[in-house]
Specification:
The complex is a heterodimer of chains A (116) and B (116). With 116 residues, chain A is mainly beta. Helix content of chain A is 0%, strand content 58%. Chain A has strands at 3-7, 10-14, 19-26, 32-38, 44-50, 56-58, 64-68, 73-78, 87-96, 102-106, 110-115. In chain A, the strands form two sheets. In chain A, strands 2, 4, 5, 9, 10 and 11 form a six-stranded mixed β-sheet that branches. A five-stranded antiparallel β-sheet of chain A has the order 1-3-8-7-6, with no helix packed on it. The termini of chain A are far apart. Helix content of chain B is 3%, strand content 54%. Chain B has one helix and eleven strands; from the N terminus they run βββββββββαββ. The chains are: A mainly beta (116), B mainly beta (116). The interface between A and B is medium-sized, with 27 and 27 residues.
């Protein structure tokens, strides 16, 4: 089974600074990986996804993530943080459950705070 | 608007009551899901239906019963509500399984259930 680990439940950056949110996965096969964002009192919105086409994936709102097989990582970055980026970010992997069915399994989430 | 819509958005009820949450998607997706997000923001899959067939049932108490009258609707009925059922419940949908593995899910905006 695969799983995802998000390092750091809270990340605080200054407006304009680099955003780096960490995600590591455990898998012996190429995974399907995703980043979702959840704004307060809202649902989850897909930011970007890795599907083995390219290791550097660009998403919405200026975010991108790089798949590094050697490090089993899929960290999310944004060169310059904006106040509107403050939200909860979830890394997810499409994995086969014990029942043999496939579903998205989420990491524990990272809350991004952006300081003015 | 094409979307996954859930009703109600907020639900406050007393212990022991029975309640339902409704979900509808107009994206033409074949598969729908229920996820539970606890107070620590952890997301866990509960159920999944594919074309009205239950395909995932993840160790959820029998008090929870999903129903899918057609592939565009997935409702969640909860009997004898308990304090621990308080959470945000998200509905989601995805395209047919073969293509859905790498497309991610579309989520509704959630139903915040509070049991008092």
């Amino acid at each position: 089974a695969q799983s995802v680990t998000q390092l750091g439940s809270h990340v605080s950056v200054s407006e304009g600074a680099l955003v780096l949110l960490r995600c590591n996965y455990s898998s012996s096969v190429p995974p399907y990986l995703f980043w979702y964002v959840q704004y307060p009192n809202q649902g989850l919105q897909l930011l970007l996804k890795y599907t083995s086409a390219a290791t550097l994936v660009k998403g919405i709102n200026g975010f991108e993530a790089e798949f590094k097989k050697s490090e089993t990582s899929f960290h999310l970055t944004k060169p310059s943080a904006h106040m509107s980026d403050a939200a909860e970010y979830f890394c997810a992997v499409s994995e086969v459950l014990d029942t043999g069915r496939r579903a998205l399994t989420f990491g524990s989430g990272t809350r991004l705070q952006v300081q003015p | 608007d094409t979307a996954v819509s859930q009703t109600p958005k907020y639900l406050v009820t007393q212990m022991g009551n029975d309640k339902s949450i409704k979900c509808e998607q107009n994206l033409g997706h074949d598969t729908m899901y229920w996820y539970k997000q606890d107070s620590k923001k952890f997301l866990k899959i509960m159920f999944s239906y594919n074309n009205k067939e239950l395909i995932i049932n993840e160790t959820v108490p029998n008090r929870f019963s999903p129903k899918s009258p057609d592939k565009a609707h997935l409702n969640l009925h909860i009997n004898s509500l308990e304090l621990g059922d308080s959470a945000v419940y998200f509905c989601a949908s995805s395209p047919p399984r073969k293509t859905g593995y790498n497309t991610g899910y579309t989520f509704g905006s959630g139903t915040r259930l509070t049991v008092v």
